[in-house]
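Ticket #4471: structure output looks truncated?

Reporter: J.K.
Steps to reproduce: submitted the chain below (141 residues) through the standard prediction queue, then opened the result file.
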Amino acid sequence: MEVVINDDFGGFSLSDIAVQKYYKLKGKEVFLYEQVGYSFRGDDVKYVKVEPGSNSHFILPLFVDLGDVVSEIPNSKGILADSRPKNRSDPDLIKVVRELGGVANGTFASLKIVEIPDDIDYQIEEYDGKEWTSEVHKTWS
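Returned output as attached by the reporter:
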């Protein structure tokens, strides 16, 4: 079985290009918005729709198209696409990481596909965002 982990400190996440590709394989379209105005600076808060690959750390992937510029992102359940898929052995995730290579890496991520035996009940563990897989076992304290 193959599993995607983050192989460096920082944490697991997909790039905006990888998020779009991953959800396209799931049959969903993703629209990317970058926050460019901040109230703490006295700016008008606004989000601008961007193309994938903008390399910003402040991209929100959404399942709805809100237009080119908006002042607010609705707080509706299911509107935000997850850039950290839960199923790390998902064949679509494996495909995206394999095809994109380093382009799949989100902010501070260095994604890696590891091979583990199919019959292992595994878990992903981490220290400061650097991950590894281990077999599930009982622990008491």
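Triage note (M.O.): checked the attachment and the full token line is present. The two ends are 31 Å apart (CA to CA).
Status: closed, working as intended.
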